[in-house]
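Recap from last week: sequence in, structure out.
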Amino acid sequence: MLKLMITLLLCLMIATGAAAERIWISTDLHISGGGDVQREAFEAVLSKPEDGDILILMGDLANSGHLAEHRMITDGLNGIADGVQVYVLPGNHDLSAEMTPDGFRTHYHAYGYDSAFAVDPDSLSYAVMTPDGVCLMMLDTNAWDEEKRAVLHGGISDGVLRWTASVLERIPENTPVFAFGHHPLYPFEGTDATTGAEQMMQVLDTGNVLAYLCGHRHSNATEGSGRKRQIMTGVPWSYPAYLGLVELSGDGFTYTVQTVFEAESDTYRTMRALSAELAERMAAGSLAGTSFEGDAEATAWFMRFFAAVLDGKLSEIQEVLRREQGYEHWKQAEVRSAVKPWIIATMESTHEDYHRIWLGQADEDE
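Predicted structure tokens:
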């Protein structure tokens, strides 16, 4: 029955000649009573989509899960441009004693759940079909603890796995599918694994899923390849302040990152300056108490490395950075924080440019 319903829905969309949409993607807004930068970024994100576009918010909309924070978010969403469809997912910061899963579904009913063709009754997962016949699988990746009234970690339950597999089985063949969740399925930089992630990747591989998109780590990155690609979108309130954009392109799709603020705006310049200050503090703090404390070469090297990581340009200068003395100093330094393992893991890995990713036939043939 569901497969027939989806087929009829697709036929209706084709018959009405709906214009090709753009799918904007943002995450980790962390709206709170304070946080002027977060609210400014939220307003900027809402200004991007135009009539006929889609906006997906992949969780951590609120900072502490307070009802007042969620009301701020829906107040903002209510003022979005006409003709823009918004779909939301919960993150670990969204759910709390004040905002339980049932409360989240009710509060955000108009932003995904009311237009879904399939809803998981036992989680906050749902699936929608866009006017262009693209299926969006919105997956709940939160390990909610009913007794503690909190999300303990990223986790995909057996029920969500079964529901996802069931929906994918009933989607008509050749229907393009994108999957979304708050938490990564591939561990980012080897940390913060999501329980059930490996099983979910296997489930998604059985359908025509072109990519899995997520947030949570506040970084822009991509892992995997082909139809097993994970695309992580960073936050809009911190440099480089990107959001993602999926567009139909020929016989497939492209994913690109777009700046939330104009590159030469005061807000963007301030973010960039704060990023450089953060890198300098991280270097100084990490090297403190080691034989390389105050080492100017190591600090300058880290600041170049940090900027390249944020800008997605590390692959362009990685070999040069590997040969420099600053990197040798970091490898030799008796650093006890997590910064050194992150540097080593990042420098010894290969990196794909996430600024423009083709999600088309070439990927499917791999």
